[in-house]
Amino acid sequence: MSDAIRNHYTRGDLLQRLQAALAEDGADPLQPTAEALAPYDQFHGRGLEATEDLAALVQPRPGDHLLDVGSGIGGPARYLAQRFGCRVTGIDLTPEFCEVATQLTRQQGLQAQVDFHVGDATSMPFGDAAFDGAYSMNVSMNIADKAGLYRELWRVLKPGGWLALSEIARGSGPEIDYPTPWAATAASSFLSTPAQTRQGLIEAGFEVLRLDDTLDKARDYGARSRAIVAQGGKPMHRAVMLIHGGVAVQAMANSSRATAEGRVVPIEVLARKPA
Ligand SMILES: C[S@@+](CC[C@H](N)C(=O)[O-])C[C@H]1O[C@@H](n2cnc3c(N)ncnc32)[C@H](O)[C@@H]1O
User: 73 phi and psi, to 5 degrees?
Assistant: First the structure.
């Protein structure tokens, strides 16, 4: 299973594709600013806006050591390190993502604050109670063993540590169509309902402080991006196209339709390991 997921995300030439996209945008491909990277390195629904919302939810403190589970090419980790002065450790199953994440982090001069490890979120190479907070953005859809994921998150958090999740949850109605941005076929897609997510976190020992659906925000973001495209501009979020190339059009169309029909629902969760 891990191989299918790694293959889904691996391009082999991701850094070169990113540099070409940046050059086409008129940005410096070798020393891009965080703003120039944002359409590409925030690989989740609503891009940087969702990361800003997650930060507002958890309010990280300078010096906190945070864990980013399924850290992709590192946009959320670099944003939290730069904006709040946190230290952030990322873990991701896809080696190419960790390599590109490390390279971009060096370019941004954040290597003393942000590091990345190749690994599986259900069996993490970190000690007990190592982190002040943990977050994961659009990752658990690829993880069948949710109990294993939540058990590991609980283990590596300090007592009183927070957990923030930005997820795509199963809604109602027929099975969704594939490919989607997170899975080529149903075989590597493991969506939980919001109720199952809440229950799984509680069973792992977390207190669930909030679980909100962010559908209205997703619709608003989509409408703004479409308006920009209608005026001849580029979509606000370009990570799926960068990573998946030609198949991205179908993947994004399937996921937009599933969202519009309520077959999937974006959610944001805040939980806490009791002190
Ligand atoms: C849609 S991307 C999101 C990346 C990043 N969170 C972001 O928002 O920019 C999903 C990521 O989850 C990672 N992933 C999937 N299953 C994983 C697992 N079991 N352990 C660690 N990472 C995993 C993938 O390699 C991919 O980088």
Answer: -95, 15
